[in-house]
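In this supplementary section we document a worked example of the pipeline. Step one takes a protein sequence of length 377 as its only input; no multiple sequence alignment statistics are reported here. Step two produces a three-dimensional model, which step three serialises into structure tokens for compact storage. The input and output of this example are shown verbatim.
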Amino acid sequence: MGDVVPAPWDGFLVTGFDVSGQILRNRSWPVPDSSWRARQEESVRWHTPASMEMSKTLAGLNGPQHARHRRSLGRVFDRGVIDTLRPVVEQAVGELLDMLGERLHEGEADFVALVSEELPVVTVGHWLGIPAADHALVRQFTHDQVYAQELLPTKSQLALSEAASAGLRDYFTAFVRDRRRNLSDDALSGWIRTWDELEPDREAADDALQRLTMFVTIAALETAATLLSAVVWLLDANPEQREWLRAHPEKAGDAVEEVLRYDPAIHVSSRTAPEDTELCGVRIPKDSLVHVMIGAANHDPRRHQDPETFDVRRKTGHLAFGGGPHYCLGAALARLEATTLLRGLLRRFPTLRVSSPPSFFPRVAFRRMAELNVVTA
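The serialised model returned by step three reads:
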């Protein structure tokens, strides 16, 4: 249908790999921030509390404001942080696979509930100091909040998101307040010290801190869990490649990249037209929503030869982590978690098989697997 396709809700779907990458990397195509949402007078969806709350997080900021908040986090998940977290991830993977093994001795096990949902929250919980007793609550809030970022959320989904946004705001407001009273050398303590220098108004500083901490948590949990489940699902559907990986475990990282290309956790990333413009021959009015269809772009045959074939030896890139100023903060951590888990599975569960097709929650933009049952053959 073309690289740019008009959508029935006055938006535009961008499907080609090259043009998608250009939009994601180009700072002149802003995300739908709070000022854009305020101009959408006839759209109830953009004025809901959950939507407005999201517009104040890092994902909803543009220009100097985005740069200021992004810089305040420092070098999040750089090589030093990843090296520090590597033994944490390795230990968590070992313990989770132990529990998976115990459950498999009894028969069928749900990989999503036992492993995929647990590894990201254990890792980020350790990094930020979120108590283990709070992991389930924070994870559920995260899952429900994301509906506000969906392509076309229903009223019931927006209601879930609104309640979850309020819960996350209350939780992380108290979380930041408690950490301020007990500063140490952890990531959040560093952010607190940074914002105390950036912002003389303590209330404004803490407001920014709770939103940053909330956003980093959401970003780290939601997409990583889907990636971990997709690794198991897609390799089970391609047993010859799974066996090749077992003989070449050093290529686990390449397999993770192909999973990210073939079925990314985020299928849609939206921007707004900065002015009346033309894109690939299609006229786009100022302020129009432009939806970068990451899943489609990753299957563009002009970029990927035979794109519908899952091939762990493929070397071409993908847009699963976005691009430009909003490139995924947690990309390195997600890769670490997925690669470590895959190597562990190849080593410890050579006969692991998916026993029934996975089920998914009703989403378009943010994929989330609900259940993936596995057995040992």
